[in-house]
Specification:
Neuraminidase, mainly beta, disordered N terminus, 708 residues, globular, Serine Threonine Protein Phosphatase 5, Tetratricopeptide repeat
């Protein structure tokens, strides 16, 4: 697990001075002799390449040259010790002891080194019964969800499931049971999101995305629902037209109120307690466009801990302590590192959180009293990744989830005349694996752009020259959309700009932005589209699917005049999905789904009656028009009994009509963003390759209490 998690982590200290090529060649932009670049090269071998022996040699070289650069040298020592630990080599002790001996003034690294030495001492001696802290995986593979919680008795785990269902998992038996009864995305677009058990374990509070529209605005809603553990007694507790999103994060000890995070229509966020009986809300704290990611209510119900980025220009978070009546707040953890995902221990004496202060994401424990922190935080477990706390069992075992997969870009070669496959897809980007999506070809076919998600808050646009292998990266001054249908780039026909969906960093204007491919400069173009936009081939405008109440309408907008005209309207119960514009700009292929089943249609770009191209048993995803305008490629599930689960196969169909044919490959999970190069010889796409795991650390509280 540690090796896989490292492959997904971005360089944590100095990667701003580096450019990583697709072929995993490392090029320093500042020269190999600078401290930042030298340490960054070692970190790259450690995190991105997983070559621990090479990383250790790099750390040694750095320490030989720059031992006096104390902030970086102590990080090199800690990383070297952890690399030795992973390899099972005794030199780990030497590295940690050198931290204590030579860098005693560095408080946090010293605490981390001391904690690791203590752990090594425990591991090297026979554990007494019930004393050794151990970690084991309890759930992995398809269908694992990380937005749930463990029941107070430690027997069950709630989770979101494929198709939008809320399920409950029997941990010991390894069996899942549906709570909301939703079996497929084909039945509706509604879904369950974050969920949490009540204190007695008999109820589950959860977020539900509802298709019921508000009469005033026509907007859809997120609402708080509560359901019994056996799936009975579902009731809607809270729904408000001014609340556009909400998450439950805890219950008061008496089960009377649920701790919620609201997002309001004005893009502010609030912490609130909501009555589980009548839905009345007590707002405790209001924020601007920034938001907590994780909150936790103390076992006695008196305090709330949450993470929050205190600076507008940084995504790094600190931990705060808020009185449950909203009267008092203190900073619990203030550190230059990124500290997030806080959770109370069952005894109410400690707060656990994830931090990258040693260079890797580790689990830390801090003793807490009524007036704030007691002492300094102690490292409990290193290399936990972006761990998501799920709760505790009565005997003190700690459950957490971690995502170790994601989105990867693949390429294959095609025969242009027939759009048949000449080679099987292979990975096109081998750095930051699991974090790459939205491939796009330049109009001349000489360059290739994509989005690389370096952290939850940082989306990097990468442009690679296919002839030279040179690569440029820039971070647009907007938040690129996270959801896959909206997470896309479209290169303008003149090659100057990229069209992207995004939102300004303060949570304001949301819609279409244009990114200059040379400078990375961003300009806001148009507010409103929710999904799917495509350039017109002449570059004078773009087609887009409407937002909100107009989501089932297709429009064209002129860049010159700003004029908008309607192209196509889908009548309920059907809905408009993806669409693609023909190379000559005269036709558009659209995907419609809903009550009459999924279907592909061809419509004139100027508007007019559609022609049915193909009606299949399942949705057609990832549409692409071949450059010669003769074929449509699309992906479709090949499991009739479970269309949401995949695998997905690639198909082609003549635009003139006829039966679809298999092109020749399938992926275990969905693929999207089909993009064909201008010469028709290469196919790129994003493959969703999620790999989520749930782990339990047993005898955990013994370790925490023993260290404090």
């Amino acid at each position: 697990m540690i090796r896989m998690v490292r492959m997904l982590m971005a360089c944590s200290v100095v990667c701003g001075a580096l450019v990583v090529s697709v072929g995993a060649q490392l090029v320093s932009t500042q020269g190999p002799q600078t401290p930042d670049a030298l340490l960054g090269a070692a970190i790259h071998q450690d995190d991105a390449e997983g070559n621990l022996d090479a990383a250790i040699e790099g750390y040694k070289t750095f320490l030989a040259r720059y031992a006096d650069n104390r902030p970086l040298a102590v990080q090199a020592l800690l990383r070297m010790g952890q690399a030795y630990e992973t390899l099972g080599r005794p030199e780990a002790r030497d590295a940690y002891e050198r931290v204590l001996r030579d860098y005693a003034d560095q408080a946090e690294p010293v605490a981390a080194a001391r904690a690791r030495l203590a752990a090594l001492n425990v591991e090297s001696s026979p554990p007494s019964p019930g004393s050794g802290m151990t970690a084991r995986q309890i759930w992995a593979g398809r269908g694992v969800g990380l937005l749930g919680s463990v029941s107070p008795d430690g027997r069950y785990l709630t989770s979101g499931a494929t198709g939008g269902d809320l399920i409950i998992r029997d941990i010991a038996a390894g069996e899942n049971r549906s709570l909301t009864g939703k079996t497929s995305w084909l039945s509706s677009s509604e879904y369950a999101w974050l969920s949490i058990f009540s204190p007695d374990g008999e109820q589950v509070a959860y977020t539900w995305f509802s298709m019921e529209r508000y009469p005033e605005t026509g907007g859809l809603s997120y609402e708080l629902r509560i359901i019994n553990r056996d799936g009975s007694g579902m009731r809607r507790v809270y729904r408000n037209e001014e609340t556009v999103y909400l998450e439950p994060h805890g219950w008061t000890p008496d089960g009377a109120q649920v701790l919620l995070l609201f997002q309001n229509r004005d893009n502010t966020y609030q912490i609130a307690l909501v009555s589980a009986e009548d839905g009345s809300a007590q707002v405790l704290r209001t924020f601007d466009w920034r938001r907590p990611r994780r909150m936790s209510l103390s076992p006695d119900g008196k305090y709330i801990v949450y993470d929050f980025p205190p600076r507008e220009d940084s995504s790094k978070r600190d931990i705060f302590l808020l009185a449950a009546d909203g009267t008092r707040e203190v900073t619990l953890v203030k550190h230059a590192a990124n500290d997030l995902n806080p959770v109370w221990t069952p005894d109410g004496n400690h707060v656990l959180f994830i931090s990258d202060r040693t260079g890797r994401m580790g689990l830390w424990a801090l003793k807490v009293a009524a007036d704030g922190a007691v002492g300094s935080a102690q490292l409990v477990k290193s290399d936990i990744g972006q761990g998501i706390p799920l709760g505790f069992s009565p005997e003190g075992s700690f459950y957490y989830g971690v995502g170790i997969g994601g989105r990867n870009i693949y390429m294959a070669t095609l025969e242009p005349a027939t759009a048949s496959l000449l080679s099987q897809p292979v990975p096109a980007v081998e750095t930051y694996m699991g974090a790459n999506s939205a491939p796009e070809w330049s109009p001349d076919g000489k360059s290739f752009a994509y989005i690389s998600q370096r952290s939850r808050e940082q989306s990097v646009v990468v442009i690679r020259n296919l002839q030279t292998g040179a690569q440029r990266e820039f971070t647009p001054d907007i938040k690129l959309r996270q959801t896959l249908p909206q997470r896309r780039l479209r290169w303008s026909p003149d090659g100057s700009t990229l069209l992207a969906f995004g939102q300004n960093r303060k949570g304001g204007e949301r819609g279409i932005y244009l990114i200059d491919v040379e400078t990375g400069a961003v300009s806001f173009e148009f507010e409103g589209p929710a999904k799917y936009a495509e350039w017109s081939p002449d570059g004078k405008g773009f087609f887009y699917r409407g937002a909100g109440p107009e989501k089932d309408l297709l429009f064209y907008r002129s860049l010159e005049t700003g004029r908008i005209r309607e192209i196509h309207r889908v009548r309920p119960p059907d809905h408009l999905g993806a669409f693609i514009v023909s190379p000559d700009g005269r036709q558009i292929v659209i995907h419609e789904g809903g009550g009459n089943g999924p279907v592909l249609k061809v419509i004139p770009a100027e508007g007019g009656e559609p022609r049915e191209l193909y009606r299949g048993p399942h949705d057609q995803h990832a549409l692409a028009w071949t450059p010669d305008g003769r074929h449509i490629l699309f992906g479709s599930p090949n499991l009739p009994t479970h269309p949401d689960a995949g695998p997905m196969e690639l198909w082609r169909i003549p635009v003139s009509g006829g039966s679809p044919e298999r092109v020749g490959f399938a992926k275990e999970h969905r693929f999207r963003d089909l993009r064909i190069s201008p010469d028709g010889r290469r196919l790129a796409f994003t493959a969703e390759e999620p790999s989520k795991e749930v782990w339990v650390i047993e005898n955990f509280l013994h370790q925490v209490v023993g260290n404090n």
